[in-house]
Design goal:
There is one protein chain. The chain contains 3 helices and no strands. The chain has about 90 residues and is mainly alpha-helical. Helix 1 (about 5-40) runs antiparallel to helix 3. The chain is elongated and about 65 Å long.
Length: about 90
């Protein structure tokens, strides 16, 4: 295997692992945040009106997180599809 192919393979593996790790960490964190907000967990535990989260936050934050996730994956899949047919891929300086 040539040195260029080895470096390209290592780069691809590194990018893949970094993206998967970020998706897992941010995905799980976003899920926990949304679960806490939607169920209003602290208010359910204490019953104290001071702990009640406003409805616009309970619905707005999860909607924003889902929207950003949809946009991210839409752009990611578009870029992956475009990379296959990129006419400048093999251009060297």
């Amino acid at each position: 295997m040539s040195e260029k192919k080895l470096a390209e393979t290592g780069s691809n593996i590194g990018q893949f692992l970094a993206i998967v790790g970020l998706i897992l960490v941010y995905g799980v964190g976003a899920f926990w945040l949304c679960q806490e907000l939607i169920t209003d967990a602290e208010f359910a535990r204490t019953g104290d009106p001071e702990d009640k989260v406003p409805l616009f936050i309970r619905l707005g934050v999860p909607a924003m997180i889902v929207g950003i996730g949809i946009l991210f994956f839409t752009v990611l899949f578009q870029r992956l599809k475009a990379a296959k047919t990129d006419k400048y891929r093999d251009v060297q300086i």
